[in-house]
Design goal:
Radius of gyration: 13 Å
Number of helices: 4
Number of domains: 1
Distance between the termini: 21 Å
Shape: globular
Low-confidence stretches: none
Helix content: 25-40%
Order of helices and strands: EHHHEEEEH
């Protein structure tokens, strides 16, 4: 999969050093993946969640560093791309205000 963009991962890891290694692991695995659908993702990341937002858009949320952080992405399987939308702490994710910005 092509990941857009690594810059968001690096920026978050710069702020939260304990997220760097788990985010890098996610990046390496995802970059090598050839996912065709969400069940393919669940084979590798069994705790990933498929969420449909009020806007009708769907996102895939990955747990990072256990459940300390959440990586919110949009996957376009037909073109082999995963877009990094936002990375949140567990508390930020739980407030759900992020859903309104996507």
């Amino acid at each position: 999969m092509r990941i857009i963009s690594k810059r968001r991962i690096n920026e978050f890891a710069g702020l939260r050093s304990d997220a760097r290694e788990p985010l890098e692991r996610w990046y390496r695995i995802t970059k090598r993946a050839e996912w065709k659908n969400f069940p393919d993702i669940r084979k590798v990341f069994p705790h990933a969640d498929w969420i449909t937002l009020a806007s009708g858009k769907t996102v895939i949320v990955f747990n990072i560093a256990g459940t300390k952080y959440r990586l919110v992405t949009a996957a376009h399987f037909n073109i082999g791309r995963v877009y990094v939308l936002v990375i949140l702490t567990h508390a930020e994710y739980s407030r759900e205000s992020w859903k309104e910005t996507l």
